[in-house]
Structures are given as structure tokens and as C-alpha cells.
Amino acid sequence: MGREVAESCIDGVIIEMVSAYSTRFYSSKPDVAARRIEAIGYQVGHQLSERYTMERPRFADHLEAIKFICKDFWTEVFKKQIDNLKTNHRGTFVLQDNHFRWLTRISLDPAVVANTEAASEGESGADSGAQMTSMLLYFPCGIIRGALTNLGIPCAVSADMSNLPACKFPCDTRQLVVLVF
Amino acid sequence: MANYLAQFQSIKSSCDRLVVSIEDVSDLWPSIKEGLEARLPLKKATLNNRTRNPVHVENLPAEFILTTDARLRSRFPQEQYLFWFREPYATIVLVSCEDLDEFKTILKPRLKLIVQNEEKEWFIVFVSKADPSNDQATKMAKKVYARLEVDFNTKKRERCCKYDLHGPEANFWEDLDLKLAECIRNTLDKRVQFYEDEIRKLTEQRFMPIWNFCNFFILKESVAFMFEMANLHEDALREYDELELCYSETAGTPGKHRDFGGIDNGDDQAALLNPGFKQLTLIVQDDCFREFEFRQYIFACQAKLLFKLGRPLEVATRGHSFVISFSKILAMHENALPFCFREVWVITACLALLKSTTSHYDGGVMSPDIEREFYRLQGDLYSLSRVKFMRLAYLIGFGHEIEKSPANSAALSMLPWPKPPIWPALSPDSSADVLAKEKMILQSKPREKHFNIQRKVLPLEPSLLLREANRRRAFLSVGNISELVEGHANDGSGPDANSRLTSKNPSYMSRTFSGPTISESRDRPMTLSEVYVAAEYSLKLTVSDPDLLNSLSSLEEFEKKYMELTKGAADNYHKSWWKRHGVVLDGEIAALHFKKGEIDQAAKSYEKVCALYSGEGWHELLAEILPNLAECQKILNDEAGYLSSCVRLLSLDSGLFLTKERQLFQSELVRLAHGEMKHPVPLDVSSLITFYGTAGPALELCDGDPGVLRVTVWSGFPDEIVLENLNLTLSASFGADEGVKPIKSAEKHVLKPGKNIITLDLPPQKPGSYVLGALTGQIGHLQFRSHGFSKAGPADSDDFMSYEKPTRPVLKVLSPRPLVDITCAVSSALLMNELQWIGLIIKPLDYSLKGGILHIDAGPGLKIEESHLIEIEGHDPAEGFEKVPIEGGKVALPDWASDVTTILWFPVRAIDENIARGTSSALLQKPSIVDGMRMIALKLDFGAFRNQNFERTIAVTFTDPFHVTTHLTDKSTDGTLLLQVMLQSQVKAALNINDAQLDLQDGFEHVAKTDRQPTFRTFPLVISPSSKAGILFTVSLSTIEEETPQQDSILNLKYGISGNRTVGAHAPILANGEGSEEMVFKVALALQRPVLDPCVAVGFLPFSSDCLRVGQLVNVRWRIERLKNPETDVSASCRDEVLYEVEAQPQNWMVAGRKRGHVSLSTAQGSRIEITVTCIPLVSGYVHPPQLGLPEVGEQNISCNPAGPHLVCVLPPTLSSSYCIPA
Amino acid sequence: MIVCVAVVGHQNNPLYLESFTGGDDALKLHHIVHCSLDVIDERVNNPKRSASTLNETFLGLLYPTENYKVYGYLTNTKVKLIMVTTDLDVKDADVRSFFRKFHAAYVDAVSNPFHVPGKKITSNSFSERVGTIVKSFGHSMSL
Question: Where is this region: Disordered (chain B) (predicted)?
């Protein structure tokens, strides 16, 4: 369906967006920058979910919707499926992608990583790099949240990238965001 | 066979239960009758349904009939065979016999004869009359019965049972029942089998010309009837369904045209629930039935069974779809039917269905969703009939009274007109009615909406009735429409009519008068009123139902019925959770209430509707209904409600109303607001007045500062609106204290439509960051309130994506911090007693000191010379220089100095009365800093409202220019002394001494007696900062006694100073400005006369211990020796004892022994004595030891050793040694 | 012919409503669409009644009246697409294909970055596209 763009362009756009927000617009307030990026992701996810659910029957329950996100949606966006879906049956789902596409090209400086692992307090460049990566992750988080919300599952999505390029996205659907206009 | 129809019908209606025939062989019936009939209806039986599966049926009704009965006799065999269903299902043979032979010979053959007919299902009941006491008889009976059994029972079937008249066996009746049921079952199976074979045969030839539906019908219905009799209603129903199916398959076959039916009188009342409505014979038509009646008949039968099965819901379901489909069929045959027949039929059908279903419906047992479904269907039926009813009403001219609401319009304008072959014409004698209608039309003007809103009224007709009617009159040429239009334009039937007509196609105008000129009235196109009258007339012919007729007879009746139907629909829809349908109909009810003047009920319903629409944001519909609500509220004088309605109206999309309408809303609102309301209500205008912080970064304030906050307020009012006052609450966004702080602005604001910028001045706020809370204020006397954030905060244009309320802080109050710093430019070594500049460096820390006022308060011993101007200069003079006055210690800072660091110079004079003393160089006493120190208290008030202030006390030290020490450098034998005066500069400025005079004390005089000039002339003598200079004086002792003895010698120094105020001491300021003029510095010097003729010598003996320690006792010893006898002043010193006195500085020493006392000293020359005083040194360091004085001996007669004061060294206490210092 | 098509948001708020009657009686169509939401609610809340079309996006005929038919379509994101037609013999397949196209158009419209989710759709291109779809529906009926 529709037109396609080179993946490299996507990467470029995302990186550029992140850097623009986090270093140019809101360099002083990283939290605001994060919120903006997340918001953009939210809208994108909102629209993508609208598109990718077009030709399919409605979901009976939340789990189906989440499975859809893990399989088809993920495939559409990231060319692969989620590797592992965990849930605590109390409304928290953890989507794990062992080879998250948008992080494959990101590598922290091993030396720095080493010495941060050595030194318990990590004031070195490693966590600045980590910070950058987490900045990159706000966008996919927003996408997931937008998609789920649009499928009627308001939730809060965070990201955990303890070991790159694997990445976990815990989605907490317990807190109900009521959308009121 | 079809001609048996009548008979069939009658039989069917005559017999309604199973028949069991009684073959009473030996007249036992009367005796056993009631016993048997007590068993009826059959409690339970197991029968086979049409799929041959056993089914338990209960309370099977049956009837015992003697074979001798007329009803069973005299039937032609083929009849029996045709109407088999009514034949007995079982035969009970009653026999009794006491004698075996009699049985053998008579009874047995007879029985054989009876039961030989295989058609029958039979069994024998042997009745024994034998009394149990008479065992002979009983035995006999037993025997006979045994015989009977042997003869008539077969292996597979028991056909006998024994009944004892006196006390029958317990199990007899059960046995009987079982046998009976068995018989019935068998018969039923047999007959069903038979009928089905017949039917099959018939069905095969279905599409042959000889096919006759009636035969099929009779067979089919017989089966159905049998099942029904056998309480197998399910099966009966299925038979009927098949029958219906077959009918619609065959009856629809093209070929011979059948007429439809429904032309008889009373047909207009739907008979879909009344099977006996018409004789089948009446509706039969050669080989089939008329569709109109037959379909209703079938449905009626089905409905009957369904009710028996207790399924009113299914009746309703089938009924609804039946009505709809049937009404389609009616439409097809419409031109064969009376005028509006279809509508009338539908109405009656719906009402009938409603009536019966509700009567049969017993709630409770059903599951909730079934229940909802049922109510929904009820609602559907109601609304269907309602629509048709409205249509009829419209046709006869009540259209003007029907609310032109969206619902009605949707229902009616898509519902085509009835299509009679020709439109009913006007009956000749109806002019009166026509006039009446005319009047009605004229009187009923379309109700104009409140706020005189101009709306295109929604159509209630698919096309203009007038044209429709006239078009359908065969002979009317279309051309005449045009004149009709002119004739019609002024008959007041609503503007929409002709506008619609012309808009439909204007070509009517062009095609004028092509038709024949019309002379006689009946060819003239009918006017609307005539159409109405004609319609009404022919409708009355159609309608036979008196109730319906009545409700169409007059407007009141119509409205009553209309209300009833609408209510019914609404209530049922509400019960079925179709809230939208229900509420909308409530709106219709409200309209009717309104017409009747029951305003409060109308208002209630309207509120519901508005709530629904606004809740889901259907503004177009809301805009339609809300003005009505507003009108009700206005009439009810419900000001609060009316106000809120106005607000809601205003806050609808502006596209929905004309500007002038919206202006009217506003003016209403304003009028109420300014008029005095009985109960003023707070008004929520969140949707109408929204507000957000102006673009850009938040306003930042220092702690305690007031500020001015700019808020963008968006007004949705069409006109300017005056707000008497305006308050804005700020809420601390993530402050610990959740204090919302209202900011009031008393003055009235005028909001333009659209964007307004409002500035509010902010009282000082607590530190933290604040977001906009709510906007409150007053319109007229009315409090209004708005929480409405417009998401249009331009800065956060993408906030909506996260669906967050824009919590952009509009105000940041910084936590307290120093805003200014004031330090002293030079704080030390200014000239005492001279007018000196003190410089204050005022350094604003990026905070404006605009309008700041500095209070300078000089402490004791310091005086500010207010006669002089203050000088303020920038850090580099380029930034500015200004002289400002100072009054009462207040200085106003100039504006240019508000943001830059400035130095403020002000003149002070430190006063010190007591004259400076020079000291002997031997004892090293420097003048202590402390007594030159002066305090200045500063207070700076600044900030926009002088709300900020800064206080500081600074210390400035003043000092004399010189520190003077004297030293006796030499003493010549002739008694002239060389006195050296050393001057040490104490200021950071060059001092130049122009002249020095020494007024000597008594006992001294200048050597050069002529004048008292110093002996050398090297003035001016320049002393650079912190350097020394010395002056020598030669003086000699004088013996001149003066009567006023002068204690000290005074050294007068005339000096000048060349210093810079930025460094330190400088030339004093003078009134006339020029700085460097001579100053005089007086210093007192104490000179000691040298010892000339010593007669007593006092020697300070060295300490015994080599070193002194603090706190250690030490003996201080002096030796006094008389050198020679004093020749003068005998009285004083020629006595043989002397008075001594020990002087010690109390801060250094504690004297342990006697300080003062007499010691004897012989007057002989050379006599000596030693005085010892025990002391404790209190401080360590070099201190003057105690001194021994001899007060009675003149100074000049004592020679001391050492001559001058000297120092001893006291070591600090050893750490180990503990001591105490006595208080 | 199709009288009216509408898009209704997941809070039953109208997002788009276009009537093709030509007359200015759109209000009644608003009413029809609004009321049809009752049926959709019912279908969704107790799908027992529409067990055959369980969770299918196409809800089929919402209610038959004598004069017009209302068809419904419910997307996965709880957005309702509703179509009102006056021709009484409609082939199911046609309606399905119509809704498929309609849905596609809707998705494209909301994918516009300047569209605010949950607000009315005010894109001309969208309404044009819908117009053509409606026309084509008419054609497919005719031939």
C-alpha cells in the first residue's frame, strides 16, 4: 500500500529530529524535548494503527490488539516481529525486540562502556551516549502508545535498552487516560 | 376437493381436542364415566413429533365419546378419511362378565368383532362388579379376566386392564393412562404418516397446471391441526411456516392474474392476529386464496401458536417484518385499493400487534437482552404506526401542526405519497369544509423559532403535495400548475411550498397555459385546502376503525393519538436502551407539550435531548433543538437555565447561526446579566471565553516582586462584551503548597470578538512556577467562570497530540537571591576630624535599581555633611556622572545608574574630641584601630514598588595623619636636650608638613629663646604613605615657674595632604570646593625632666628565675639607696622612712604583696634597703614590669636604673601546669 | 442512490457528514445517522445477535425501513462509517466494496499530519474523494 521510502531516510529523519529537539529547541529542558518527540511518535502511531488495521476484523480483547502490535504492526514498521511478549496478567505487557531495528546502527564506545561498568558511578560519556539512545527511543515509545491508545488501550510505554541492540518496551495499561475534549 | 373447504373450516372450528371413543359393551359407562373423565386432560403422554422423536406433552386435552353417539355415527367413509384428524384416536372397550361360559360363547366373539378393524387403536377395560367380601365372585372375575388376557393380549402388546368397581387397584389408573397414551401415539403416527404421504404426492405435481393450492392447504393444515390438538405446537408452527413458504412460492407464479383482495369493507383493519376474521371460502379463488386475506390468516395461525408457546417476542419480530413486507405488497396493489388503504392497514396492524404482544408478554422470565429486544420491537411498531399516522394527518391538513423536526422530516420526507390511480376529487357539496380548511390553514402560521431564527423549515413531504395531487388527477394538464402557484402563493400554506416548487424546476413558469382553458370547477387544479378536504373525505371512506376515524376527526383527537403513539415509541425505546431513538422522540413529545402550553414538561424533555446531542457533539442537531429549550426556559422565567442555554447557543460553531442571531443571544445574555436576577447564578463560559498565556517564555519574577502578566483571552461572543471585572487564578504547577492565587483586576475589560490581550498586575507570589487556573469575573451582576484552555497556545502547538491540557507555566517566581551588593570603596584610614568622601560601590546583580532610594545613617561620632552634594559616578566615568542632593540621609539613585555598577561618594566628618597624644618611643603603644572606627548603616529600597530592600552596615576607620613618638636622643652636660619627634604617616596619601611648632611644657624651654621657631628650615617636609620622618628640637630645662603650670607640650603641625579618595585619605572637602589647604594637627607630648641631683637611687634587681611564666609567682625586688642628704626640702625626705608605691598595669600583673607602704631608711648617706613585691604575670609577651615609685621624693631626685621604662619577657604557661586566675 | 455518508468518532461524535440529496435537508440525515448509532452500540455490546458477523468491520444493514437503508462499518479504532441509501435492493458486495474504499479514504485523511485526531475532517480532497466513491457506487448499482 502506498509509497515507500528508503530506510536510511527514516533513520536520518529520526536522528535529525531527535537531535533538533534535544539539542536545538529544548537543549535546556530534556524532559520537554522528550515529551515533544514522544508526542510526535504518538501521532504517527495513531495514524499507522488506523492504516494497518484496515483489512482485518475487530479485536475481541486487549491481548489480540497487543498481538497485532507485536506481529503485523511491528512487521510493517520494523520489518520483523517482536521476539518476546510477556505479561503479568495485571495489565502490564512487555514487548521485547532482540534486534531493534532503529538501534542496530547505534553503538556506544566500548572503552567508555567498559570503564563505566568498572566505575560504579557513571559520570563519563557512556550515559551521555545512553541518554542519546534513550532520546532516540522516545519516538518508538510514542508510536506504540499511539497505536495502542487508538485501539482502545490507553497505556504508558517506556523503553529499556539495558543491552543493545535488544530493547524492551513495557506497556502499562492499568492507568486509564480518559480522552476528553 | 376444494369444495370441502367450508366443511373443513367448520369441522376444524367445531372440534378442538382429541376424541377417544368408548365401546360400551355391557352398559358400564354410567358407572365408570366420572372415574374416567377425572383422568382428563391426560396428565402426561409421550408422543412423536414430525421428526418421529418422542416428545413429552402434558395436559393433553381429550374427550370421551360413546361410539353410539351421534357425532361419531353417520359419516361417509371418504369424509372420515378426509377429515381423519377428528376421528377417535383410541377406542376403549368396556366389558364385564362373571361367567366363563358366557364370556366364551357371547362376549369373546363380539369383542373380536369390535377389535378386528385394524384402523382402530383399542384396548379393553374389564370391569369386575364382584364385591371383595364375596370371594367366590372375585375368584370368578379373576378367572374370566385371566381368560380375557389370554385371548386378547399379544406378546408385544398388553391390551387389557382390570377395573374393580369396589376399590380398584392402585396402579389401574396409571395403567389406563399409559394404554390410552400409547393408543393416541400410534394413531397420531399413523395419521401423520398418511397425511405426509398425501402431501408428498401433491407436492410432486406442484408445478403442473392441475396443481391446486387449496388441497395442499387442507392437507397441510390438517396436519398442523392434529399437531396442535396433540399439544405439539412447535410442529404445528412448522407446518404453517411450510405452508406459507409454499404459498409465496406458488401464488407468486405468473400466469393467471388473481385479484389481491382487501377491497371488502373493514379490510383496512389488519386481521393479522385474527384467524377467524374471514371464512376461507370467502377468500378462495378458483384454486387458490386471495393474497391479502390469506397471508394475514397464516400469520394469525402462526401468532396463535407462538402465543401458545409463550413467545410473544417472536410474534413481535415476525409481526414487524410481516407488516413491513406486507406494506410493500400493499404498495404494489395500491391502485386497486382504496385511498390510503396501505397506511391505514399498517397503523391498525401495528396497533393490533402491540396490543396482543403486550398482553401476552409477561416479563421477568426473559433474559435482559431478550427483554430489550422485545421493547425495541415495540418501539419500532409504535414509531412505524406513528409515521403512517402523521402521513394521514398531513394529508388531511394537520401538517401545519406537526413539528417540522429532523426526526419527523426524516420519517416523512422519505416516505412516498400514496399513489391512488387518480387522486380523490372534491365532492360537490364540500365548499363549507373547504372554507373551514382555508381558515385553519390561514390561522396556523408556521411557528417561528425563538430569537427569530430564520431557518429553512424541514420538509415533511417527499414532494409538494399540491403538485402530487393535481398531477394524479388524470385530466389536469400540467400547465396549470403555474396559475395554481399564483393562486397558492397567498393562501398562506407556508413559504416553503412555492419556494420549493419554483426551486424544483423553474421551467413550470415558462410552460404556461399550454393546456386547455379550464372553465368548470372540477377541472381547475385543486387548491391545497381542497386537496385536504378531498383526502379527508375519501379517507373517511377507507377507514372503518372507529377509533382511528375519531382520532383523525379533529385536531385535538389527532394530537391525543399522536402523543400516545409517540410516548409509546419513546418509552419502549428507552426500555430497550436505544436511548437516542427514545430521547429524540421525547423531543417530539416536548414539542407537543409546548404547543399545548405545558411548558415545564416541554423544557424537561428538551433538556434531555439537548444533553444527548451536546454530549456527543452533534451540534447541527443541537442548534435545531436548543433554541426551543431556551424559549421554554424564558417563558418559565428560569433565568439560570436560560442563561446557560444562551451560553451554549453562543458556544456552538458560529457557522450554525447567522451573526445577527448570535448577537441576539448575546444581547439576551447581557440583558439578563445586567438586569437584577432573583437568584444570580455563576455562569460557566468555559466554551465561550478561553484563555492562554501569551506566546513565548513564561514571565520570570524575582521573589517578592510584583509583575504584569499578559494573558490572551479569546472571546467567542459575536460582539464586544464588557466584563465588569476579571480575576485569574494561578495554580502552582508543581509547587509544594497548592495555593491557587486569584489575581484580581478591578477595572472593566472590553473583549473584542476573537483574540484579546489582557494585562493583569501581579502581586508578589511565592517562589515556584505557575500555570493558569481559572478565569472568573463578572458580566453585569453575574459571576462567570471559565476553565477553558484553548489548545491554541502557539508555543505548544503540538501538545494536543499527547492529549495533555497545556500546562505551560506562564509565571516563574525565582527563589530569593541577592539582587544588589553595596560595598565601601575605601574603608580605612580616612582623616579624623576632616570632611572626607566615603565611596559606596553599588553593584546591581542583574536587577534594575530603578527608582531606588538609599538611606544613609551615620553612626555616633560621624556626621554627614548634607550641605554638600552627593557624587555618583559610573564605574568608568563614561557611564555617567551626576551630583545629587541628600536630604535626611536619603539619596535617590538616578535612572542611568539603575543597571550599572556605580560609586556613590558622600562627605562625612568623623569627630574625635580628645587630642591625640604622642608617646615615648620606649614604650611601644600604637593607637588602637577601634577608637577610629565609625559605623554607617545603609538601606537601599528598590524594585518596581520599592518592595525590595537591601541593608548593610559598613565600618570605616578614621585616623590621625601621623603617629607621633618622641625620643630623647642626647643630653649634654649643660642641660640642653635633643628631643627627636618622629612622625609616622598613617594614611595612604602623601603628607607634606609645612610648619611645626612645639609649645613646651613647664620646665622646658627652647634653646633659642628669641623665638620658638624650630631650629631648622627644611619645610615643606613630604612624608610618603606609611613612612616616617623625624624632627629634632633642642630644648633646655628652664627654672622659670609659671603660675599656670602646663602639663604637656603641644606640637602643632601645619600640613597638607595630597590623596585620592579612591585610595584613602584625601584633602578635606570645602564649601568652596578647592581641596588642598593647610590643616593643623595638634599632638600632645609628655616630656620628662632628666634627673639632676639624685639623692635616692632605685634599682630594679634582676629576677631570680631566669624566665617568667604566666601564672608563676615571681618576686620583683628593688633596692633603694640614699645617695646623699637632701639639702632642700627637708620636710619631705630627711625623715628616716620613705613611702613606696608599686604601680603595675593591672591587665598584665597581679600584685600579691602590699602595694604601698613605708619602709625605714636611715637618713645616713649610703644606707640602703630592699623592697620585694610578689607578683604574678598574667599575660605572656614583652610587658612592662611593675614599677616602684616614691611619691614623697621628687621626681628629679630619683635616679632610676634602668633609666626609662623597660620590658621583661613572660613566657606562656607550660601546658601541663594548671593554674587558676583569681577573680 | 446514496443519500448520505458519515464518519463518527469513537465517542460517537460526528467527524464528517456529507449529504447528497441536493436539498438543504441535511439535518434529517444527521438525525438518521445519529440514531443508527443505537444499533451499532447494540451490535457491538451484545454481538450475540450478529454472531455471524462477529467482529467483522462491516456491520451490514443497521436497519431496514420502508424507504431507506442504513449500513454501518466499524473500524478497529472504534470509528464508525455510516451510509444511508434510498435504493432498496442493494447488493451486499457493493456495500462492502464501498466501505472498503471509504475507509481507505478516511485513513488517508486522518494520516494527514495537520489533521487533529478526534476533530472534524475538513479536508476538501477527502470530500472530493468520497464524492467520487459515492458516484461510483451508484454506477456499480446501475450496471
Answer: 486-520
Q: Which residues of C touch A46 (CB under 8 A)?
A: 117
CATH code for the structural domain at B820-1085 = 2.60.40.1290
Lowest mean pLDDT, pick from B72-86, B254-268, B1120-1134: B1120-1134
How many distinct helices (H) and strands (E) make up chain B?
29, 53
Choose the CATH number for B1096-1211 among 2.60.40.10, 3.30.360.10, 3.40.640.10, 2.40.50.140: 2.60.40.10
What is the complex's ipTM, to 2 decimals? 0.84
Give the per-residue SS3 of B303-332. HHHHHHCCCHHHHHHHHHHHHHHHHHHHHH
The CATH number of whichever domain residue A124 belongs to comes to 3.30.1380.20
Inspect the interface and report whether the beta carbons of A177 and B803 lie closer than 8 Å: yes
Q: Is residue A2 part of a domain?
A: no
Give B591's contacts (C-beta < 8 A, 6+ positions apart). Answer: B403, B405, B602, B628
- The residues with which B960 forms a beta bridge, in sequence order, are none
Which amino acid is present at B1164?
A: A
Of A101-110, B426-435, B510-519, B575-584, which has the strongest mean pLDDT? B575-584
Distance CA(B1111)–CA(B934), nearest Å, equals 37
User: What's the longest Cα–Cα distance across chain B?
Assistant: 211
Chain C closest-CA separation from residue A36 CA (Å): 15
Phi and psi dihedrals of B779, rounded to 5?
A: -110, 120
Count CB-CB contacts under 10 A for residue B305: 23
- With H, G, I as helix, E, B as strand and everything else as coil, classify residue C109: helix
Domains of chain C: 2-142 (3.30.450.70)
Taking residues B564-571, report their average pLDDT. Answer: 92
Residue C78 with chain B: CB contacts under 8 Å: none
Contact C13 B621 (CB under 8 A): no
Angstrom CA distances, B472 to B433, B467, B588, stand at 22, 8, 32
The number of C-alpha atoms within 13 Å of B482 and in the hemisphere containing its C-beta is 13
Report the neighbours of B using a cutoff of 3 or more CB pairs below 8 angstroms.
Answer: A, C
DSSP state string for B535-590: HHHHHHHH---HHHHHHHHSHHHHHHHHHHHHHHHHHHHHHTT-HHHHHHHHHHHH
Judge: C31–B369 Cβ closer than 8 Å, yes or no.
no
Q: Is the pLDDT of residue B1016 over 60?
A: no
Q: Report helix, strand or coil for C73.
A: strand
Every domain of chain B with CATH number 2.60.40.10 lies at 1096-1211
How far away is chain B from the Cα of C27, in angstroms, using its nearest Cα?
6
Residues above pLDDT 70, as percent of chain C:
90
Q: Which residue of C has its CA nearest to A151?
A: C77
Q: What is the DSSP letter of B936?
A: E
- pLDDT class for A177, splitting at 50, 70, 90? very low
Q: Is residue A29 part of a domain?
A: yes
The confidence score (pLDDT) of residue B1062 equals: 81
Q: Do A59 and C10 touch (CB under 8 A)?
A: no
What count of other Cβ atoms lies within 10 Å of the Cβ of residue B905?
21
| One-letter identity of residue B878 | A
Say whether B799 and A43 touch across the interface (CB within 8 A): no
Q: In which band, very low, low, confident or very high, does the pLDDT at C102 lie, cut at 50, 70 and 90?
A: very high
Interatomic CA distance for residues B345 and B268, integer angstroms: 5
Cβ of A47 within 8 Å of Cβ of C57? The answer is: no
Displacement of CA A93 from its chain's centroid (Å)? 14
Nearest Cα of chain A lies from the Cα of C135 at a distance, in angstroms, of: 22
- Residues B1066 and B990: their CA atoms lie apart, in Å, by 9
Q: Which fold has domain B15-199?
A: Rossmann fold (3.40.50)
Contacts of C85 in chain B (CB under 8 A): none
